[in-house]
Amino acid sequence: MSIEFIFRLVGMIVFAVLGAYLGAFFSKFSDQPKELYIIVIGLVGAMAGIILTPFITTRPARMIRALIGRVSAQTLVAGLFGLMAGLIVAALLAFPLSMLPDPFRGIVPIVVVLLCSYFGVLVFIMRQNDIFALFRLNLPGKTPPADDSSGHSDKSRTILLDTSVIIDGRISDIARTGFLVGTLLIPRFVLNELQYIADSPDGLRRQRGRRGMEVLSQLQKDTTVPLRISDIDVEGVKEVDDKLVILARQLRCPILTNDYNLNRIADLQGVAVLNVNELANAVKSVLLPGELLNVNIIQEGKELGQGVGYLDDGTMVVIEDGREFINRQVDVTVTKVLQTAAGRMIFARMEGKDEISD
Hints:
The chain folds into 4 domains: 3-56, no CATH class; 63-133, no CATH class; 152-281, Rossmann fold; 292-357, CATH 2.40.50. Helix content is 55%, strand content 16%. It contains 15 helices and 10 strands. The protein has helices at residues 3-26, 34-56, 58-70, 73-97, 104-126, 128-135, 152-156, 163-168, 170-177, 188-198, 203-221, 240-251, 260-268, 276-282, 353-357; strands at residues 158-161, 183-187, 227-230, 255-257, 273-275, 292-300, 307-310, 316-320, 328-340, 343-350. The protein is elongated. The protein starts with a helix and ends with a helix.
């Protein structure tokens, strides 16, 4: 039996009683029997109670709960302090305002209380970061000052993991290097999505999901970076990406992902993102025109006579006049480096072509 059903029953009884009282009242103005009014209007009240009770009880409470769940703890505390400050100011102004002549002495203090409360909450929420920085409060996920020599900021930092970065697998190697500092947090809804992918009837999706499970197993065994799975959830939201963004705002922590769309959504909402793809591009070696490379040409290029090879980090190298050297390890000279949306592409020409031909 759900709580909403119980409220419907209670509402039905309350509205039925009110309807019966109204029926008894309206029967005084008619020649019809009093019992007829009581029964008819009481039944109408009971039906109205069954239909309307959830809209004035459980559903507004559910909406308020979901709204509070989306607000960070720091914002709630700031709003509470702002309300208290506004009420204190209104109390100080209440006595002189009560000396005003009628009818202002009864209206103006109420208006001042409402205005002071509103502006108190508004100001404290707008300047919450400055206020908490002033008092040096360490809230969950809040980064302490940079001069904290104890290293507590690094150890207490939480990093949310997205499903895509788990399936990608590189997170295990990155964590092993020690560049990630903090606790890796995997919400239960991310784990559920990963399990759903692992149980998919599509063979490719199923393979990716199982690889993600193996990566999680490796992260749990590796003690370099702590891994924690939490049942924390965001009510009123269905999409996993939206839940991650809201949760990151509440905990004031970054999201580790390689999903481009999630990256954009998080950036628009002011959430910090650690993108594995951006990290991979940042650590690629810098090559300048004129440098020498040793490349294994493995296939033909799009243009006539071109050969294509790849560096160890996956960067494509297009070699001019390299078609005849397919499946051979050759030295090439970099002529141009092109950065595209898909990644970096290097153009090169053969070095010592005559000697290779011989």
